[in-house]
Amino acid sequence: MRATALIVVPPLLVAVAAALMPGYVVFTLAALAIITLGHLLFGRRRGDEPPARPAWEFFAPADLLAARAGTAFATAVTWVGTIILSTESRIWSAFAVVVAALPVAVGVQLLVRLRRGGSVVRLTPSGVEVRGRMYPWERITTVELNGDRAVPRLDLFLTARRAPVQVRPEGIDASLLFLVDLLGYYQSHPRSRGAIGTPPEAERIYGLLLNARLAAGLRGGPRPILIAS
After folding, report:
1. Where are the beta strands (DSSP E) in 25-107?
2. DSSP letter string over 148-190?
3. Is the four-CA dihedral 182, 145, 119, 61 of positive or negative sign?
4. Torsion angle of alpha carbons 111, 113, 115, 116, nearest 10°?
5. pLDDT by residue (tens digit) across 18-76?
6. Where are the transmembrane segments (predicted)?
């Protein structure tokens, strides 16, 4: 229900503004205010970093996907409404529809991801899958946590690829610090990769990484969770 509201409400409010506002300038300002407010309230990850957890698949936050889809559709309605209110030209109206197809396509893509529930990062014995593309362990050279405290990112460096594969916190419901430790461990311990995907291995690696951080005196980072026995 919440996800549906985040998808439907922003474009609906923009459409209502288009019907009520006296001119395209006022409408455009009102639409931008609606989109900006929605992004500030729902389109960004809020609160602390998510807890570390023993899992092999890490998904995108459903509310964030829904909010961004709603923003994309609202942007399309804003563009079309501004052109229609500012001119009666059929050529410009057709052009507005064509341009609006871009944010609509983005919104549809987000809805498909939300519907399918596809993982952002998935670990397997043969490699790491990021956003649907598999990278064999043999190609992974380094796993780093880069950026800064406000805008961190996980960089996955690969052979024969100049730019790293990046994962950012707003796109995944997982602790980047935990993921760096997790991926780094299996990158440097190939003999342990065959057990990836099994519950006993999940508990073992979770405890190992957590204890290693505590032994090193690192108290910050992902909040641990209890594993039911």
Report:
1. 57-59
2. -SSSEEEEEEETT-SSPEEE-GGG-SS-HHHHHHHHHHHHH-G
3. positive
4. 160
5. 888 888 899 999 999 999 998 888 877 655 567 677 789 888 888 888 898 999 999 99
6. 64-85, 91-112
